[in-house]
């Protein structure tokens, strides 16, 4: 018999606290806003599993560190778990949580698998880690604190895949990355800007989600304070990233 998929709270590595009392203190509007925010994240975490599956397909046969291969393979499953954990959060805040449709197909980047992995991990997952780190600072409820901590733990590992690959790039790959860097920054930044706009500023603080305005600040700060110095350290000229940030 097929082993059961660990749904909702069962997807967490450690048992999650019961947030019923904290959530019960919120009014209906606040609960609905948070339920929607967590349901949206469940969807994007599921799509992240597809992004990692495409990325893994590109790098698994390359001569990379075993840790890179292992973490990339694990990341496909991590994102499936994250989606379930976020779906559990949406349910805790009162949303209906039917099983999600399969993740969207993600195409391999034309610049090649290593550049694809760097865009996905060193850039996108680093921004995601900064977002979660700030969310953790703000999280006041025990449940959201535990959930955000678990997600953050994995996203930091995912970002490290990209930084490890970046450090091992040859000159040709460095040139290929430099050429598409502005496009990568635009795509990643626009996804977050879109999320910020959809989130808005009415979201109650302290429940593991950031308000739109705070999100914008976190994203651009992460580009400036984490991505740009990291690229420079690896010998990639970050001028075009600065230009994209305006
Ligand atoms: Fe995730
Ligand atoms: Fe991730």
Bound molecules: fe (ii) ion
| Name of the CATH architecture | Up-down Bundle
**Rg of Cα set:** 18 Å
Helix content: over 70%
Write a concise synopsis of the structure shown.
The chain has 246 residues and is an all-alpha fold. It has helices at 20-24, 28-59, 66-92, 113-138, 142-167, 171-199, 212-233, 239-245.
Describe it for me?
With 246 residues, the protein is mainly α. It has one domain (27-245): Ferritin (Up-down Bundle). It is 71% helix and 0% strand. It is built from eight helices and no strands. The chain has helices spanning 20-24, 28-59, 66-92, 113-138, 142-167, 171-199, 212-233, 239-245. Helix 4 runs parallel beside helix 6 (171-199) and helix 4 packs across helix 7 (212-233). The longest helix has 32 residues, at 28-59. The chain is globular and about 55 Å long. The termini are far apart. One fe (ii) ion binds at residues 48, 75, 79, 125, 128, 154-155, 158. One fe (ii) ion (FE2) binds at residues 45, 48, 79, 82, 151, 155.
């Amino acid at each position: 018999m097929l082993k059961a998929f660990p749904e909702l709270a069962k997807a967490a590595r450690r048992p999650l606290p019961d947030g019923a009392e904290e959530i019960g203190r919120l009014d209906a509007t606040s609960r609905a806003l948070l339920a929607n925010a967590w349901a949206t994240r469940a969807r994007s975490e599921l799509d992240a599993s597809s992004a990692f599956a495409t990325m893994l397909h590109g790098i698994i046969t390359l001569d990379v560190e075993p840790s890179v291969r292992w973490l990339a393979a694990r990341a496909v499953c991590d994102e499936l778990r994250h989606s379930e954990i976020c779906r559990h959060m949406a349910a805790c805040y009162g949303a209906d949580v039917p099983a999600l449709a399969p993740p969207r197909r993600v195409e391999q980047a034309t610049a090649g698998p290593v550049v694809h992995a760097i865009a996905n991990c060193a850039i996108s997952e680093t921004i995601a880690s900064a977002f979660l780190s700030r969310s953790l600072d703000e999280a006041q409820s025990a449940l959201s604190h535990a959930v955000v901590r678990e997600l953050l733990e994995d996203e930091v590992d995912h970002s490290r895949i990209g930084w490890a690959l970046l450090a091992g790039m040859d000159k040709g790959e460095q040139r290929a990355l430099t050429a598409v860097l502005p496009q990568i920054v635009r795509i990643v930044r626009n996804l977050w800007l879109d999320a910020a706009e959809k989130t808005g500023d009415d979201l109650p603080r302290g429940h593991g989600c950031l308000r739109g305005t705070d999100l914008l600040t976190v994203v651009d700060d992460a580009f400036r304070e984490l991505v740009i110095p990291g690229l420079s350290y690896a010998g990639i000229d970050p001028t075009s990233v600065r230009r994209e940030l305006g």
